[in-house]
Design a protein that fits this description.
The chain is mainly beta. It has a single domain, classed as Lipocalin (Beta Barrel), CATH 2.40.128. The chain has 1 helix and 9 strands. An 8-stranded antiparallel β-barrel has the order 1-2-3-4-5-7-8-9. A hairpin with an 8-residue loop joins strand 6 and strand 7.
Length: about 180
């Protein structure tokens, strides 16, 4: 019996000794586009039809790094919340602008339409949210090749765009759109 107790004590001492080893400090590595990347809540407005013409309210989009991680392009996607688009666009991190007048192809499967994201801008800490936190704002103009098909062509002309504007997600529940 004494041998069993001694064995248990020895095992506990070894386990405690090993568990107290100093671990490597975690070092976070940010992507090259961390200043522009994140989740945003945006509203889609249209010049002729006014604010939020489809009554969709604020919808989540994400901006994130490409696999190249060169700081020159980002993905913007809405993951089906509004129009179902995911496009890779140029970004200038020095002045936090993004977009191009050139068309890019939507990479959402079975929905490969032309899209233009232009005049994009992110401004740090300018939107005061209900929680009191200041969040980044985002703005860009968005054109879809099939926009004219909405309502049988009765609503939109060939060159109509959405103005997309909103704020970066804070993580606080009171700041989530309702």
């Amino acid at each position: 019996m004494k041998n069993i107790i001694n064995s248990i004590i020895l095992v506990l001492v070894v386990v405690l000794q090993v568990s107290c080893d100093e671990k490597e400090k975690y070092v976070q590595i940010n992507s090259s586009t961390v200043e522009a990347s994140g989740e945003y809540y945006v509203r889609y407005d249209q010049e002729k039809l006014g604010e939020d013409p489809f009554g969709a309210g604020f919808n989540k989009i994400i901006a994130f790094n490409t696999s190249v991680d060169n700081g020159k392009e980002i993905w913007i996607a809405d993951e089906g919340h509004f129009w179902d688009y995911k496009v890779k666009i140029p970004v200038n991190l020095d002045n936090l602008t993004f977009g191009s007048a050139d068309t890019v192809i939507n990479v959402v499967e079975d929905y490969e339409i032309k899209v233009i994201v232009n005049n994009g801008k992110i401004i740090h800490n300018v939107v005061e949210l209900p929680s009191g936190v200041k969040a980044d704002s985002i703005y860009f103009e968005l054109w879809f090749e099939d926009l004219q098909d909405v309502g049988g062509g009765a609503y939109f002309d060939e060159d109509d765009v959405f103005t997309v504007a909103g704020y970066r997600k804070s993580g606080f529940l009171e700041d989530e759109p309702h």
